[in-house]
Amino acid sequence: MVGIGQDSHAFDFEDKEKPLIIGGVLVKNHAPLKGNSDADVVLHAVTNAISGITCVNILGKIADDMCHNHGIKDSSVYLKEALKYLGMKKIIHISISIECLTPKISPIISSMRQNLASLLLIDESQIGITATTGEGLTAFGQGKGIQCFACITTTD
């Protein structure tokens, strides 16, 4: 089975306290993303891709309840919740595409792959991550935020 997920967030240039987290990796010296949670676009896109397979939407009512009523803002918790609904299906590959002008993604790809492998209980070799500025054609490529797509393949 194949699931596709997408997420995007604008930068919050006013917030000087919140960290920027991408794929579970802390990016220092950069504006954070707007959102009720940590706004990790990579983990949100992966969570949505899993929801595309399970038909259980985590980002929405479930994550909102976790965030607003229980103070859970860590997107890895939402991802772990999505994994509960996979049943006997196993993730065999994930492909992630990130669009943004800043920060530069290449220096953190290895750390993101390590973090995702740990969260998804798969090998790093099963995770591909690419990045683009999109030649500045969208708000993401113009430095206003980050967009991420994720495609997950599972066993039946």
Give the arrangement of secondary structure elements:
Blueprint: E1 2-10, E2 20-22, E3 25-27, H1 41-54, H2 58-70, H3 75-83, E4 91-99, H4 109-120, E5 127-132, E6 145-154
Parallel strand pairs: 4-5
Antiparallel strand pairs: 1-6, 2-3, 4-6
Helix pairs in contact: 1-3, 2-3
Describe this structure in words.
This protein is an alpha+beta fold and 156 residues long. It has a single domain, classed as 60s Ribosomal Protein L30, Chain: A. The chain is built from four helices and six strands, in the order E-E-E-H-H-H-E-H-E-E. Strands 1-6-4-5 form a four-stranded mixed beta sheet. The chain has a two-stranded antiparallel sheet with strand order 2-3. A hairpin with a 2-residue loop joins strand 2 and strand 3. Helix 2 crosses helix 3. The radius of gyration is 15 Å and the shape is globular. The model has no long low-confidence stretch (mean pLDDT 96).
Question: Can you count the helices?
Answer: 4
Largest sheet geometry: 4 strands, mixed
Name the helicity range: 25-40%
Taken from the alpha-carbon principal axes, the silhouette is globular
Strand-and-helix sequence, N→C?
EEEHHHEHEE
User: In the CATH hierarchy, what is the architecture at level 2?
Assistant: 2-Layer Sandwich
Q: What is the number of strand segments? A: 6
Strand order in space, largest sheet:
1-6-4-5
- Indicate the low-confidence ranges by residue numbers: none
CATH superfamily: 2-C-methyl-D-erythritol 2,4-cyclodiphosphate synthase
Using the coordinates shown, work out and report the CATH topology.
Answer: 60s Ribosomal Protein L30, Chain: A
Overall tally of structural domains: 1
Helix- and strand-based class? alpha+beta
Strand content: 25-35%
Query: For the terminal residues, how far apart are their CA atoms?
Result: 6 Å
Radius of gyration: 15 Å
CATH class: Alpha Beta
